[in-house]
Amino acid sequence: MGIPMILAFNLDARATAVLQKLCDALKLRLKVVPKEGFSLPLGAMVGIPVSASPAASENFDEPMLVMCNLDEAQFNGFLQALRFSAIPRIDLKAVLTPTNVAWNACQLYAELCRERDAFRKKS
Questions:
Q1: What's the angle, vertex CA 88, arms to CA 86 and CA 63, rounded to 5?
Q2: Which helix (H) or strand (E) holds 32?
Q3: Range of the structural domain that residue 23 is part of
Q4: How many domains does the chain have?
Q5: CA-CA distance, 106 to 101, in Å (whole number)?
Q6: How far is CA 116 from the centre of its chain?
Q7: pTM for the full model?
Q8: What single DSSP character describes residue 30?
């Protein structure tokens, strides 16, 4: 298992500062990914060798978090702390998995949006 890390996309400076304090308290590393990095494979962002080459991608503006290498206690603690933090709600959250490790941020964003839309239609 690698370093417990949170990848953050499209957070403003205030939300980033609050998230950094939250991650520090939970001993998690925070990596803020700039738009220029959105085309890189998610695994490459956390140091996992990935056999996928960077794909062309579009950008997105909605905040998104990816939780990487968290054990169950870290995962639950992070989500609970995030829920009670001063950060505005972030709907798009994912866990790095063997399925999405070679995806780039835009591919993950598109999949999370599809899942959110499907969930909303069922509700």
A1: 130
A2: strand 29-33
A3: 5-122
A4: 1
A5: 13
A6: 15
A7: 0.93
A8: E
